[in-house]
Amino acid sequence: MKTKCVVLLFAGVLGLIGWSGCATPATRIQANPEVYARLSEDQQMLVRAGKVAIGFSTDAVKLALGDPDRVALRTDSDGQTEVWHYLTYEAGGRILVTGYFHTGRLWWGGVYPYYLRYPNRTVRERFTVHFRNGRVSAVVEDRGR
Fold it and tell me: Cβ(129)–Cβ(54) under 8 Å?
């Protein structure tokens, strides 16, 4: 009986981990309906499609794309820009992981073990989103594929 409980608990934890790692625009909208409701109809359509546009707020970008993999500040003669980087990890031309999953920032603090089998993995920047005064001022996509 004790073994059965441990197995069920382990299966439940694995299911919760799998579910929490599968964030989509729909799940992010469901978790943040008040942010979604503040968007215009055109913005809502883009968010549902996982896309962003000039003028989006940081909250709208998080709904559409999720959390960035890296954040940097860029200062130039026009002022300061916050740059969100969205990355893909690859090995041998094959995508291993795209998005938030590889960063180890998930609630349990872990990384996916299979990923560690690729010591020669490379990081490719899928795109960056630039913010000035809290609004998207530029989106730069990697067209190198």
Answer: no
